[in-house]
Amino acid sequence: MAEKKVALITGANRGIGLETAKQLGEQGVIVVAAARTLKAAEETAAKLKALGVEAYPLQLEVTSASDRVATVKYLEEKFGRLDILINNAGVNGKEGLVPMVSQVEDYELERIFSTNLFAVVALTRELLPLLKKSPAGRIVNLSSILGSLALHADPSSPIYHFKSFAYDASKSALNAYTVHLAWELRDTPIKVNSAHPGWVKTDMGTDAAPMEIPDGAKTSVALALLGTDGPSGRFIHLGQELPW
């Protein structure tokens, strides 16, 4: 019997992260459910275990260097490798959509980029040695269609008037990271992709969103379980490629 895959999901305690953990667990994947606090992580793991998922809690505030070091140590000692990394944790603008880029303050850019880009780059870099020990490592970066420069620049695009510079730019930069990391790892079994989950009914997406949470997790789950012939360095939503 093949060894079970091990997945680390950041921000796994609610919304798309929790649903992704549930769906991967249902496919027989061991889930390490990471959350900002140990309490939240433990509550999440308990929910998943009640559903029959093999889940383990982990405190991981992604912007914390000490938490990242502890994460690597934990995974190394417990599993000796990592098969799937889902960089799901993210933040949006405190004021929601702020269309006027001239009004975005420095602290807001720094706050959003710290979680949505810098922490992802740091955590992924620190976990790469463990991912390289997997026969088929998968990295999924949770992006957004709002990171698409092509669609933002197109007046006929459905997102043309949905401008929130700090958030959008953090996702554009995350997409650039996906492209660069996929290129760096092109001669390895590791695949790296950006996922647009869709506009989903979560705390971040609000009840105005058209998609339900189970559908919002489908893209992450599919990219986490890609076969050897699957894409790398792509921007995907429900199996369809999006323009950068």
TrEMBL record:
Annotated Gene3D superfamilies: NAD(P)-binding Rossmann-like Domain
Listed SUPFAM superfamilies: NAD(P)-binding Rossmann-fold domains (SSF51735)
Keywords tagged on the record: NADP, Oxidoreductase
InterPro entries, sorted: CBR1-like (IPR045313), NAD(P)-bd_dom_sf (IPR036291), SDR_fam (IPR002347)
Domain of life, source organism: Bacteria
Family recorded in the similarity comment: Belongs to the short-chain dehydrogenases/reductases (SDR) family.
Protein name (record): SDR family oxidoreductase
Organism of this sequence: Acidicapsa dinghuensis
